[in-house]
Amino acid sequence: MAIAYDIPTEQPKPEQDANASVVAVEDLHKSFGSRKVLDGISLSVNRGETLAVLGRSGTGKSVLLRLIIGLETPDSGSVRIHGQDIVGLALDRLGEIRKKMGFLFQHAALYDSLTVAENVAFPLTHHRKNLSKSEREDCVKQLLTEVGMENDLGKMPSDISGGMQKRVGLARALALEPEILLLDEPTAGLDPISSGDFDQLILKLQRERQMASIVVTHDLHSARTIANRLALLDGGHVLAEGKYEDLQQSDIPFVNEFLKQQ
Amino acid sequence: MSSSQFTSVAGIAPAIPPGRTTLSIDPETSSTGLVGGFFEWFGSLGVFFWRVLCAAVTPPYEWRELIRQLDEVGSKSFPLVALAGAAIGVVISLEARYSLSRFGAKSMFPATLVYSVIQVMGPIITGLVVSGRVGAGIGAELASMKVTEQIDAIEASAINPYRLLAATRILACILMMPLLTLAADACGLLTGWFAQHLVEPLSFHQFIENGFHGATFDAFLPPTFKTAVYGLIIGLIACFQGMRTRGGAEGVGRAATNSVVLGSLFLILADVVLVKFILVFFP
């Protein structure tokens, strides 16, 4: 059965306070050897807002997410989470900030020696020690129900499909009730129907939880579905940023070419 | 070790800024040459060891994971170690009996077997067997986690991967090695006695009495406890190789191989130093 998902005319409304940037990246530079990946990127995301970062493969989109959560260190620039610059932060302090963030990896990065339920419980086991075993189990069931995986608690990651792994990865990312959600190519490798389902799931969660979200994707349709704003990266720079309608008015040739190809 | 082999083993030195934990390494920033690679590797290993040590002594402690690793390293290595010890016992028994007979010193057989097994062969054979089994297992497991971003996921969940993954495994190796060595020694003495008993009947009681006649704890405890250092070497190198892997399946294979090769090599080299240390401090 074909399911058509219309691009909603109204995404969840973000906070309007101009000073409410939850995530603010300023003049980020990152090179790997002689290869410059990010060349002065500046972006910000408010609470309740979803920013989609688009671009060709290899333009540093995933590197940007890794810089925001601190898995990479920039050559220069700052990454501010609730105003706190995390660059050069001590590990313990960085850990406290990471507890407010959820990260969905491109291939879900589930722990392959743990079951689906154990994967989702993993952050709770380490950071919510006050929860009893039954409370933790209830929390896990609730999270997996939210993503439609409530019947697969005992399965191993190798027993479920890629799309299902991403759902479990999303549930794990939401376990600590993060204020910031980072999604790395959430619909990559999914068929169009599964991709549409996943987009609707993200929209639903965004409406309910009002997180500041950054989604890295090269899927323009998905970006238009779930994001309030789009940012197009190329050559290490943000070429254009704004709503899809604004990008359509851009006079930058690459932007027009990118939107046309989709 | 050839230059190219050492370069592939040495890898690249990471520039790890303060507060960072991942060991992502950029080949384009590596020093070139064998000497540079040699020092970079040791430098990286030193940084890794320091971070593991800092993580191991600061709470929260990963007791559950430690217990799991004690089982993985200890009880699951026991059959293999016992078998290796038993085989060594038979080999030493056969060789010693032949050599001692030639020099008219058959009465020295029990002591020869006891001292050979407990002071020399038991520890080194246990170390090499555990390096092969545990070192390869840890190296491959952590390498596989690295290339599938599971270690990044642990770190992104605000959990210290040095504490959860490396410190628990290294500590398990340190704690289990002396116990495994005792098991290998016991099996070696038992089979060595039995091999002798088949040729020339000798009661086990007499064998133990003659073998340990005049022996003190100083003769046997240091060689057994030096295997804790072997455990440190095996665990440290395997975790280091695993957590710095890159390159997909090929990288995983390389990490497993390097864990065994380097673990075994440094274990033997450490034995040279430790034997001298024991002879000086426990004459």
The chain pair forming the largest interface, with residue counts per chain, is:
A-B, 34 and 26 residues
Mean pLDDT of chain B: 87
Number of domains of chain B: 1
The helix fraction of chain A, in percent, is: 25-40%
Number of domains of chain A: 1
CATH class of chain A: Alpha Beta
List the helices and strands of chain A in order: EEEHEEHEHHHEHEHEEHH
Oligomeric description of these chains: heterodimer
Q: CATH homologous superfamily of chain A?
A: P-loop containing nucleotide triphosphate hydrolases
Rg of chain B: 21 Å
Largest sheet of chain B: none
Characterise this structure:
The complex is a heterodimer of chains A (262) and B (283). With 262 residues, chain A is an alpha/beta fold. Chain A has helices spanning 61-69, 91-98, 116-127, 133-146, 162-173, 192-209, 220-226, 244-248, 253-261; strands spanning 21-32, 35-46, 50-55, 76-81, 84-85, 101-104, 180-184, 212-216, 229-234, 237-242. In chain A, the strands form 2 sheets. In chain A, strands 6-7-8-3-9-10 form a 6-stranded mixed beta sheet, sandwiched between helices. In chain A, strands 2-1-4-5 form a 4-stranded antiparallel beta sheet, covered by helices on one side. In chain A, helix 3 (116-127) runs parallel beside helix 5. The longest helix of chain A is centred in the C-terminal third of the chain and has 18 residues, at 192-209. Chain A starts with 20 loop residues before the first strand and ends with a helix. Residues 1-5 and 13-18 of chain A have low confidence and may be disordered. With 283 residues, chain B is mainly α. Chain B has helices at 3-10, 34-57, 63-75, 78-102, 109-147, 150-156, 161-199, 204-211, 217-225, 227-243, 248-281. In chain B, helix 2 packs across helix 7 (161-199), helix 4 packs parallel to helix 7 and helix 5 (109-147) packs across helix 8 (204-211). Chain B starts with a helix and ends with a helix. The A-B interface holds A 32-35, 66, 69-73, 88-91, 93-96, 98-99, 101, 103, 105, 107, 109-112, 122-123, 126-127, 172, 176 and B 17-22, 24, 26-29, 60, 144-145, 148-150, 152-160.
